Fold each of these.
Amino acid sequence: MKRILFFASLILLTASIAMTVPAALFNWRSATHDFGRIAQGKPVTAEYTFTNTGELPLVINSAKGSCGCTGVDYPKGAVLPGQTGKIKATFNAAALGAFNKTVLVESNAEGGSQTLYLKGEVVKEAASAQ
């Protein structure tokens, strides 16, 4: 019986320690950007603003677009707790039609990698773009 109580106490202690481990944490203003209708041949840029609401500095290791048509710029230095940062994704609007693209962000933040989304429709005439 003492053994069972000892192991149960050990499991509870381990669980409580695991829950209090400090980490970096993304808090996105919005993880999706809808461009609506955009003109063909005119690259467009979405900005994704985040705050590090964790207790450790947040370091982005990489941020990559889902295709060669999406370039990504991200903070290369650490984002301290309470600070904000921006990731910019530029989509080259070459092909006509609807598009759905993603940006995969890999960092030391809790929860592993994060996915950002951009979508819209490329139209031929600039006059119909918003």
Amino acid sequence: MFHASAHLFRPAVKLAAAAAAVLLLNLAAPVSEARAQTTVFAAASMTNALQDIGKLYKEKTGKDVVFSFAASSALAKQLEAGAPAGIFISADNKWMDYTEGKDLTLKATRVTPIGNSLVLIMPADTAKDVKIDKSFDWLAFLGADGRLATGLTDSVPIGVYAKTALTNLGQWDKVKGRVVGAESVRAALALVERGEAAAGIVYSTDAAIAKNVKIVATFPADSHPPVEYPYEIVKEQDTPETQAVFDFLVGPEAKAVYAKYGFVVH
């Protein structure tokens, strides 16, 4: 009787095992699909353009691209800490050089398809056009207690560009006490939009998408290094899918979107 019962239960055990296997496969499927997506770490100033480009890629291929936007400095540190990404787009060469130096990104894939310009903005209701040169009186421009918003001047690319430009114009020591360093260019833009800063130094493309600010001056090109955006594939992520996304991000359709948002296309 015991042996007969064992035989009776064997099919049930096999069915249970099969059901468990199917369940595991079903649970694994979303994970596999998630891993198949390419994640792009990109400078905050590229948010709107890349979101549009991601939609184009989805329309053409049916595949999603996942974007993570922040200051290039923060993204480079995240890569160093092991955060998963397939592509890194920096708002300056410094942080791409950093990831290369840490053997995190593939130097052989590096391209620089776009650039930007450095501008001075004000809230639209207080804006007044000015000319930036070595004789420009920043303290008079900002007023008695006005603040100048930009990125953190020791790490965030827009802040580094701003400090370099002000230093080259002989103005940094005069104005540094008024500077408010934000965690990204979009955070600096928001301070000016809300009227919490009298003015801000951002990229022209960020000013272009803001509703309540106005560009009042463009910094002289020789006051700072060219604003460039290098792209690289992350080490050990050089898969066909990642390469396809990378090629699209630097291709003609993407460049048309960059141009629409005011980036300088190379």
Amino acid sequence: MIRALLLLLALSLFPVGAQAAPAKDWSRTVTLTREGAHVIGNPAAKTQLVEYVSYTCPHCAHYVAESTAPLKAGWVAKGLVAVEVRNLVRDKYDLIAALLARCGGPAAFPGHHEAIFAAQQTWFGKAIALENDPPDYPATMGQSTRMADIASRIGLLALVAGRGVTPARSRACLADQKAMDAVLGMTNRASADDVRSTPSFLLNDTLTDAHDWGRLRGLLPAPAK
């Protein structure tokens, strides 16, 4: 009886077929830089990738559609590469999208970011139509109120509402001066980084000649197997 109890105790301490805990999925880690940019992945990764993007840039939408899944699975999730997303704002619609992408905190950013780009053709098409027939806003209407109305007209409020951001929360994000300063600060920094177009990429603080996923992929370290 004693031997049997000891055997059961040993098996409970060292279960047969026990496996090591799964490796950490770094793609779920999102942090903010001091400047307010979002970093997805292991902050201590040997390869630091900076993406300069604009939400009204069709080439950026194409890049995000092509790169997100393979970059996440092959490099970011395994802790090999950290991706820092910086805004290079081109117009008021881009600014509105950038502020809404930030709405909900760092953990919500990657999903908002991808969803806004995935729906770019729809909402930006409405933005072009609105630009051709702009609303007659009263001079007394504040900037954030105008931005919220535009976001509603082009469907961005509905898009992020479908991701759990209430209209009231969206309006608060569009009125967030600190967030706006961060987005515009990244846009100003692009000049210092010699970035002239989007998408553009820096690897470990060095500007590359890549402007699409095919070219960028060849510059990344070999993915872990």
